[in-house]
Amino acid sequence: VRLWCPELRDVPDEFLHEPWSMSDALMNECGVTLGRDYPFPIVDPTITPEIMSNDKGVDGSGRGRRKEQGKGRYSTSKIASKGK
Does the reported pTM lie above 0.90? Predict the structure, then answer.
């Protein structure tokens, strides 16, 4: 992360992936100001979207987005039918 985000070079390891969770004093000590040196989070990381909290998946079937198993470009049934 520090290679691609040099503005985080002085941020302690435990805050490297969530620099916004540092205290203001620690941010000052590290020389990081959110909104100036590093962007604010795009979404609020403390809120779980409803779609992610649904234990049955996106469409309610428990299978995620695809309504029908075995259909689609990367279906395992196509691989199995080719004898692989």
Answer: no
Whether the CB-CB separation of 19 and 34 falls below 8 Å is answered with yes
Task: Give the dihedral of Cα atoms 52, 39, 32, 44; nearest 10 deg.
Answer: -30
What token pair was written down for 5?
Answer: 């985000």
Q: Which residues of 62-73 are buried (b: 16+ CB within 10 A; e: fewer)?
A: eeeeeeeeeeee
Tens of pLDDT, residue by residue over 24-66, are 999 999 999 999 999 988 887 777 767 666 555 555 555 555 4
Beta strands in 21-80 (DSSP E): none
